[in-house]
Amino acid sequence: MFDFSRYDLSPVTVKFTEFSGSIFHFVVQVCAIIGGVFTVAGIIDSIVHKSVTALLKKAELGKLG
């Protein structure tokens, strides 16, 4: 009457390898992370600023409801 399916999940092997890069590689990676954070923060700030400006303009015109 019922069709049951049985899944056999095999274990996953995780392999860790160490990589010793130069200090220059580390500095570049840190700068990339900081740049990404500033970019995302700027996008969020822009969206919030435009939304608040639009709401204030509607409130000024008395169209908020």
Key traits:
single chain, 65 residues, 1 helix, 60% helix, flat
Structure description:
It is a single chain. This protein has 1 helix and no strands. By secondary structure, the protein is mostly helical. The chain has a domain at 21-60. It is flat. The mean pLDDT is 89.
Describe the structure concisely.
The protein has 65 residues and is an all-alpha fold. 60% of the residues lie in helices and 0% in strands. It has a domain at 21-60.
Element string (H = helix, E = strand): H
Largest sheet: none
Radius of gyration over all CA atoms, rounded: 26 Å
Q: What is the overall number of helices?
A: 1
Beta-strand portion reads under 5%
Number of strands: 0
Helix residue percentage: 55-70%
Global geometry: flat
Distance between the termini: 57 Å
Look at the structure and give the mean pLDDT: 89
- Based on secondary structure, the structural category is mainly alpha
Point out poorly predicted stretches.
none
Would you spell out the secondary-structure blueprint of this structure?
Layout: H1 23-61
